Amino acid sequence: MNLDIPKLKSIGKRVSYPKNFQLVQKGERCQKCWIIEKGIARYMYLQEEQELTGWFDLEGDIVGSVYSLLGLGGAREKIQLVEDAELIEIQLVDIQKDDAYFQNFKMNVMSHYFIEMENRLKLFQSLDGKGRYLYLLENKPQLLQRVPLHMIASFLGLTPESLSRIRSAIS
Amino acid sequence: MNLDIPKLKSIGKRVSYPKNFQLVQKGERCQKCWIIEKGIARYMYLQEEQELTGWFDLEGDIVGSVYSLLGLGGAREKIQLVEDAELIEIQLVDIQKDDAYFQNFKMNVMSHYFIEMENRLKLFQSLDGKGRYLYLLENKPQLLQRVPLHMIASFLGLTPESLSRIRSAIS
DNA sequence: TGCTTCCCTTATCATTTGGTAAGAAGGCAC
DNA sequence: GTGCCTTCTTACCAAATGATAAGGGAAGCA
Q1: What is the CATH number of domain A5-112?
Q2: Among partner residues B70, B114, B125, which is closest to A52 by beta-carbon distance?
Q3: pLDDT greater than 80 at residue B49
Q4: Dihedral sign computed on CA atoms, order A61, A62, A65, A69
Q5: Is the distance between the Cβ of A162 and the closest atom of strand D smaller than 7 Å?
Q6: Nearest nucleotide (C1') to the CA of residue A150?
Q7: Close Cβ partners of B26 (under 8 Å, ≥ 6 residues apart)
Q8: pLDDT tens per residue, range A98-135
Q9: What is the dotted CATH code of the domain comprising B5-109?
């Protein structure tokens, strides 16, 4: 049931992209996904005037628009690199050749994000800004060291000013 | 690609349960799911001391612990009926007989909740309590008429008092 | 070097929200 | 009926957050 990552990597090819490079465009029907060898990817939603940070992927994660990969439609978000990155780029068509593996791939990718989002939603429902920040500090401390704070603030549903206040109140 | 609902219904059997009946217990490995003919189901997370309303299902929706149905483990939530309900009860084992249909079933159920939760998360990240309430009023007005407001408050990530204040400020 | 741009912080004030307490209205059991 | 329980509202105060403005520092570029 688990995803065969080595197989997935063998299907793809190694690529390097610079900071701020855009992997996925909003509305795009994605034919690719990536595995992060080094770097951070950021999922961004364009919400009336403001840019919302929906998620970050780190080393070892699979990057791609889930909505689009599943064949549900065009990507709802754009995905950009926060740092210079080294990735394994995988053409979807190469996974689709093996249908059983492709089904397994889709189930794995979606269930992974399903679990992450379920947790994330509970955090928003039950914790205030300080609580959400502390949770991030506890569970993904690398993000706080490698990602600009205004992106973290958006990810936490806060203004940069509020996040700054929360951080200064703690330390 | 879409789920064959008539087929699903033909597999199950009609049942009636009273208000407050518990369909799924936390930790349970579910062998059933349901289609709602009449009534409302409520998904509840037990979060340190407090009870969190994660979701509501209405007429036409498929009810069940997605996490458990996908074989990922025991249910993370309990599911109870908000009203007396009429349901089509479906034994999982009966769907699993047809593997292609079962794969399709799982993909459909999960992608449905994936999309719902993605939207819901964006609401929490970008809107305050009033905004989230107005969104609900616009998009699921039936819930406000049929579900006790303290459950709605929890669903919106608010205290009952805050929701009450928001409602009185609007009307 | 000097300049701009980006990133972050701090301060102030208005608004929103939570916590606590209290009370009203309705349903239900006895 | 009486009494209990649930649900909902209102009021008050403290805390959290947003909006706006301002400033400093670091990085990048001509």
Answers
A1: 2.60.120.10
A2: B125
A3: no
A4: negative
A5: yes
A6: C7
A7: B46, B74, B75, B76, B77, B78
A8: 888 888 899 899 899 999 999 999 999 999 999 999 99
A9: 2.60.120.10
Instruction: Number of A to B CB contacts under 8 A, please give it.
Output: 80
Return the axis-axis angle of helices B129-139 and B99-126, rounded to nearest 10°. 140
Beta-strand (E) ranges in B29-133?
32-38, 41-47, 50-57, 62-63, 78-81, 85-91
A117 lies within 8 A of chain B by CB: yes
Only one residue has tokens 């958006």, namely A154
**Half-sphere CA count of A165, side-chain side, radius 13 A:** 7
Ordered by start, the domain boundaries in chain B are: 5-109, 127-171
Two tokens, residue B52: 């969190």
- Tokens standing for residue A117: 């989002």
Contacts of residue B118 in chain A, CB cutoff 8 Å? 54, 67, 76, 117
The band of B99, judged by pLDDT with boundaries at 50, 70 and 90, is confident
What is the token pair recorded at B139?
Answer: 């998009």
Judged by CB atoms closer than 8 Å, whether chains meet at A114 and B113 is answered as: yes
How far apart, in whole angstroms, are the C-alpha atoms of residue B161 and residue A69? Answer: 42
B67 in contact with chain A, both atoms CB, cutoff 8 A: yes
